[in-house]
Design goal:
Blueprint lengths: L11 H9 L6 E4 L6 H8 L3 E5 L3 H12 L2 H16 L7 H8 L6 H17 L3 H17 L35 E3 L3 H7 L4 E4 L8 H4 L1 H8 L5 E2 L4 E2 L15 H11 L4 E7 L6 H8 L4 E10 L2 H5 L1 E2 L5 E2 L6 E10 L2 H7 L3
Parallel strand pairs: 1-2, 1-4, 2-3, 4-7
Antiparallel strand pairs: 5-6, 7-11, 8-11, 9-10
Helix pairs in contact: 3-7, 3-10, 4-7, 5-6, 6-7, 8-11
């Protein structure tokens, strides 16, 4: 799966353990699905997963890893990936925007992205199958990018991996069906019902659309107007989230928590976020007993590398190098919340 700020790869055992301790839980709603790493793990564990995210790249990943049924799409996907991998490079908008005007991928790989993604668009595939092959392309591009993991900027010199050849691989699609939605989180909370809701909202000013705008364009394939050194999509300026606002974050999360149609909640939040542990506990207590599990992690690699000015000179000093990821486990049944937290 793609490199992702806020990825829950290392937290997966704790998240799964919390959900498993809710008696009788069969369905899990993931309201901010991102890479679908959590939804994929829950599906593998046998849960019926409802994955939601308003960004197009995240919706494509959820279609691939949560909704698609391997038994139905695998043969066609493997055939298509072989055919697409054989296409000659053909530079277009993607190459010009993200490999020449900016330097997120080497032009040789950008030209292959252009050729492959244009071919996929012309095929008008069934949505789940299209999501699988688009995900393969997105992950292939991610493996040869030239960033520290986010697309706010690119490296001054090409990363060694940027010179590797773009390689399409079959994603790890699982058998069985989940469901993928592309809704505003509050709309999804109001309309979708589950036994457990997993909430992993944006926690500070950094927008996931801004951080992964190249992948948004690769999936939408809409050749948007771009601005700035990073060639961000113009709609990064309009598609703002209350979760990225210090002033509006608490109200947005409170409204979401009140609207969720599930008796049990698992909420992931980083200690670099706008809300403190105490504020989150008070906010979540309206839904039942709250138990908290804390895990210490090294900070995102960009924070450890440091801060540089446009001339490539290091400026300022790196602050703390570790942070805490917190899981808030909430249940209308207080005994169940304590058990889910392992206490």
């Amino acid at each position: 799966m793609i490199k992702y700020l806020g990825s829950k790869r290392t937290l997966l055992p704790l998240i799964l353990a919390a959900v498993e301790r809710f008696p009788g839980a069969r369905t899990v709603l993931d309201l901010f699905s991102g890479t679908s790493r959590v939804g994929h793990a829950l599906k593998r564990a046998g849960y019926q997963v409802l994955a939601n995210d308003h960004n197009a790249y995240a919706h494509a990943l959820a279609r691939c890893y949560v909704q698609a049924d391997r038994r139905r799409v695998e043969a066609d996907a493997r055939r298509l990936l072989r055919e697409l991998a054989a296409l000659p490079p053909r530079p277009g908008y993607f190459t010009e925007t993200f490999c020449v005007r900016s330097r997120f991928l080497h032009p040789k790989n950008g030209a292959r992205v252009d050729a492959i993604r244009s071919a996929i668009a012309r095929l008008s595939l069934e949505p789940d199958l299209e999501a699988v092959v688009v995900t393969s392309l997105l992950e292939a591009a991610d493996r040869v990018d030239s960033t520290t993991g986010v697309q706010m900027a690119y490296l001054k010199d090409w990363a060694p991996r940027a010179h590797h050849e773009l390689e399409l691989r079959m994603p790890d699609v699982l058998p069985g069906n989940g469901r993928a939605f592309q809704l505003d989180a509050l709309d999804a909370a109001r309309s979708l019902e589950a036994d457990v809701a997993y909430l992993d909202p944006p926690y500070n000013q950094h927008s996931y659309l801004g951080n992964y705008h190249v992948w948004e364009t690769l999936v939408r394939w809409d050749a948007p107007e771009a601005y700035g050194v990073a060639c961000k999509r113009a709609d990064c300026r309009q598609r703002r989230s209350d979760f990225n606002s210090r002033r509006r974050m608490a109200g947005a999360l409170a409204a979401l928590v009140d609207a969720v149609r599930a008796p049990h909640l698992v909420v992931s939040f980083n200690d670099e976020g706008f809300l403190s542990r105490a504020e989150l506990e008070r906010l979540l207590e309206r839904r039942g007993r709250v138990e908290v599990v804390e895990v210490d992690f090294p900070r995102y690699v960009g924070a450890r590398i440091g801060i540089y000015n446009p001339a490539g000179e290091k400026v300022g000093r790196v602050g703390r190098l570790r942070n805490k990821e917190r899981l808030f486990i909430v249940s209308e049944d207080r005994a169940v919340a304590a058990a889910a937290a392992g206490r």
